[in-house]
Fold this protein.
Amino acid sequence: TTVDAHLDPRAEVAEIDRRIFGGFVEHLGRHIYDGIFEPGHETADAEGFRTDVVKLVKELGVSTIRYPGGNFVSGYRWEDGIGPKEQRPRRLDLAWHATETNEIGLHEFQSWLDKVGSDLMLAVNLGTRGTQEALDLLEYANTSVKTARTDERAANGRDTPFGVKMWCLGNEMDGPWQLGHRNATDYGKLASRTAKGMRQLDPSIELVACGSSGRSMPTFGAWERQVLEHTFDDVDFISCHAYYQEHDGDAREFLASAVDMQRFIESVVATADHVAALKKSEKRIMLSFDEWNVWYMSTWNEQAVTYGPDEWPVAPRQLEDQYNALDAVVFGDLMITLLQHSDRVRSASLAQLVNVIAPIMTEPGGISWRQTTFFPFSLTSRLTAPGARAVRVAVESGTFTSERFGEVVNVNAVATVDDDGVSLFVVNRSLTDAASLRVDISQLAEALGKELTVVESHLLHEHDHYAANTLAEPERVGVRPVEDAAVAASVLTASLPPVSWAAIRLA
Ligand code: AHR
């Protein structure tokens, strides 16, 4: 079917904050140990970091990385991860039923971030700990004044502050599974007084209050309102977390996942703005979508290992989802949706990066490889130039019927426009219909003052939607050019097979 679209640069959403291309590293499973850190590995550098993984993380193009959790942070003592390694305590990680060796802590992680070229976003423990410990960490990380804490930092090898800009006030405090879980009022009060103290110490930081850990949480909406009623003046962001998966082989319903994300974002924006109205404030709270991905959570629950009371393994294989082509198409659509809301989604973190629900996989002593989801992330990040603006693309396509969302458009797209050209990201969600895309770009060509041609294009599509990259076949799925993508008379034409994602760069 022919799909007509129109790209007018005046339909601008916002200049994109690069933090929308963030990632997330948690002390969980083989993410850190036997993932990014494997001292015996043939590619390991002097600090024990796998350089093959560093290379892939750079290629992925992640801006800010949230650390150290996740559920893990709600029981974490950050002091365990500093000082001489041989003196660091081994601790039980209650969130994931594992032993944490604390070989990697703040200093080592920062050193790894310097290698991959990403910025640190830290979460403080508001589960088992409180305001004082958050202040201790902030002083240790961000202060240049000579104090007992900064002397300790210097003794641990770092004279200059880490200068961490973004801070999460706890993690998923609405979730009954969370250590130190609280109701919205109790959390809101704790987050407010912690935020106030942190700002007294360092007014330049940006703070994220915990929103809901999913749109289906029973407290969704009320949680955001109540938390923001307490923290509105103290924070810059409210977080959103969402994971999607194909249930019972229903690919059609899975392909509508981005509609859920869209509704999630719009509901949280409405709620935050409702609190602004109550407070008669012009301030706008931004969204930090700091956990999003495809995650086969139901499979994990079914297969979850139950450990004996004395079994607390170090770096067990946990949450090692294998992603297929269908997952990557949905994933690409989620990225399109984040960009479509970049006026309010000013930060987002793909959860997670290596081995744990991750775009990058490693085998101990062996290879590392790109999962299918790697491609839409790295291409969207790379083809969105610094300073680019997100522009809405008006698409007239057919629809399919979703049980949850009613009529859902087959084709969804967004453009990122910079001074040199435009990148178009487009998904064909239809299970059956190929799309012959025709995009009128005349207004864009006029605004940029030049004729545009296709300079690169990438298509992610597999006849077998369930094809995946594995240890045995690490390059089974990749991207290839959109063969017929071309511009003639200011119209871009391109064919998109059913269940496909594409990126097309015009300059
Ligand atoms: O990303 C995996 C887990 O999902 C995180 O630890 C937690 O915050 C969320 O429930």
Observations:
- The chain has a mean pLDDT of 97.
- DSSP finds twelve helices and 23 strands in the chain.
